[in-house]
């Protein structure tokens, strides 16, 4: 495996300066005001992309996806490099931190299924919107810019987010073509679009069923109504939003299940295909719902909910026609 950490920006991020340093020109007053509202007392932060690139040859299909025990390229020869799809993982943490439980263990699961994987350690509070969206957009562009070298199908890249990371994944899914992103060096509209969304107990809405802490960390204490509406993602699903795999638990007391239901309903209204699983029981933040991600907490283990990763891999295989 090729495992390395890549800085995604030339300059460190802080809550005030990074957006203005990277942008070529911008007239979005709401965004500028929100960036300026951040508390800039923390040391500069460097968002990073950690690679989990399966070491080996590239050119055709990975043996785990094709069912073959040999690496065979399109011309029938062996020992050629095979291309694989990829998954970009966005851990949760309420836009206050990024959880290790929803990072490497997830990447390794996708590796086992034959996918290259990446984990983004994105900007959190005191950084404000749009910095996390800039980070994930830049990460997607880096992956596509290196697709040939890393052996990645550039049209088979999913983004997988948990909780607030699910909000960021869905945010990219609905806002990848926002006009202000065109002005940011290192981001190319289109290259930043994911081909599939995997949303795990996601934060979605800023309305009645909002996880308030996430929106305070992302937008500040008193965001205006326009910004709250922009970040309430169920209102922004369009025909250009990628297909989605979504799962949640009915009993989630941290992020209500209505977040997933609202996003699924919005996808249905736009005729965007999705797969939705609502498990009857389970606390928030289950990750794989297995011992390896439980940190010794029995409430974070659920053999029934643990089926989500198998179902997700099956859905992704169908989605990417592998």
Describe the protein in words:
The protein has helices spanning 18-22, 29-36, 63-66, 104-112, 131-145, 147-150, 164-175, 212-219, 225-230, 258-269, 308-319, and strands spanning 5-7, 48-52, 84-90, 116-121, 152-162, 196-200, 244-249, 274-279. Helix content is 30%, strand content 15%. The chain has an eight-stranded mixed beta sheet, sandwiched between helices. The protein has 322 residues and is of the alpha/beta class. Residues 15-21, 23-33 and 58-79 have low confidence and may be disordered. The protein has one domain (5-319): Alpha/Beta hydrolase fold, catalytic domain (Rossmann fold), CATH 3.40.50. Helix 5 (131-145) packs across helix 7 (164-175).
Give the secondary structure arrangement, pairings included.
Elements: E1 5-7, H1 18-22, H2 29-36, E2 48-52, H3 63-66, E3 84-90, H4 104-112, E4 116-121, H5 131-145, H6 147-150, E5 152-162, H7 164-175, E6 196-200, H8 212-219, H9 225-230, E7 244-249, H10 258-269, E8 274-279, H11 308-319
Parallel strand pairs: 3-4, 3-5, 5-6, 6-7, 7-8
Antiparallel strand pairs: 1-2, 2-4
Compact overview of the structure:
The protein is 30% helix and 15% strand. It is built from eleven helices and eight strands.
User: What general form does the structure show?
Assistant: globular
**SS summary, helix count:** 11
Strand percentage? 15-25%
Biggest sheet strand order reads 1-2-4-3-5-6-7-8
The H-and-E topology, N to C, reads as EHHEHEHEHHEHEHHEHEH
Overall domain count: 1
